[in-house]
Design a protein that fits this description.
single chain; alpha+beta; Aminopeptidase; 29% helix; globular; disordered N terminus; Acyl_CoA_acyltransferase; N-acetyltransferase domain-containing protein
Length: 234
């Protein structure tokens, strides 16, 4: 199992899951603004790119720099630390944990025909501050993203919003503006439901929590299914 030191200093470099390739770069401003509104205002440069960081994506055509298993373990731990760091989540007794060997991420990425991991990486430190998994089916023109995670110390600074925009741009570029973008959200995370609703996502259904991720504290919990059609928001 990876130690906290490994994640604290070890989520440096590239983090990827199974079935990886494609490269997407955006820049990012890691400002010291005390208010989120000010920080997000400074997020983009005039050319639309982020400032002091980059969002990097990997899909099936890119050669890995590190061993797949190591990358899956680090990606899992980044997600775990993000979820465990949420005070409301802890108070409710929900300790969501991906297995540290990366098998859960591999299973998730196998649900669609292809899968990509996008990570937010700070330029100066090479530190990973956020991660999200993107799945897509080229034939059905359906995309999905989930497991959006930001380190506790970086939450509320606009990184999650930047990752969502990157997911949407990535999927529209792959599947076209008439594609459908979907995501599952745990019903016990109401703040996330509001986060996505503000960005144009609407609920279209629900499904049980995946059995292979089921822990006792999740019995009776379901995933609410949200979707967005980029063509309707253009």
């Amino acid at each position: 199992m990876l130690s906290k030191d490994t994640i604290g200093a070890g989520a440096f470099g590239l983090v990827v899951s199974a079935q990886i390739g494609y490269l997407l770069y955006l820049g990012r401003k890691h400002g010291k603004a005390s208010r989120k509104a000010r920080f997000e205002k400074e997020l983009l440069r005039e050319d639309g790119r982020l400032r002091d960081g980059e969002i990097v994506g990997f899909g099936a055509t890119r050669v890995l720099r590190r061993d797949d298993d190591w990358e899956c373990r680090v990606a899992s731990e980044v997600a775990n630390l993000a979820f465990v760091g949420e005070a409301d989540f802890k108070r409710a007794g929900h300790l969501f944990r991906l297995d540290v060997e990366g098998r859960d991420l591999q299973r998730m990425s196998g649900m669609y025909s292809m899968s990509t991991i996008l990570v937010f990486q700070v330029y100066e430190t090479k530190e990973i501050a956020g991660v999200v998994r993107v799945d897509f089916d080229l034939d059905k023109r359906i995309g999905q993203f989930g497991m959006l995670s930001t380190r506790e110390q970086d939450q509320g600074r606009g990184i999650g919003s930047a990752l969502v925009r990157a997911c949407e741009e990535y999927l529209v570029r792959l599947l076209g503006p008439d594609c459908v973008i979907r995501m599952p959200v745990l019903e016990i995370r109401p703040h996330l439901l509001k986060f996505y609703e503000k960005r144009g996502y609407k609920q279209y259904g629900a499904k049980p929590f995946p059995e292979f991720l089921m822990k006792p504290e999740f019995y009776g919990t379901q995933l609410l299914l949200y979707e967005k059609r980029p063509s309707s928001t253009c």
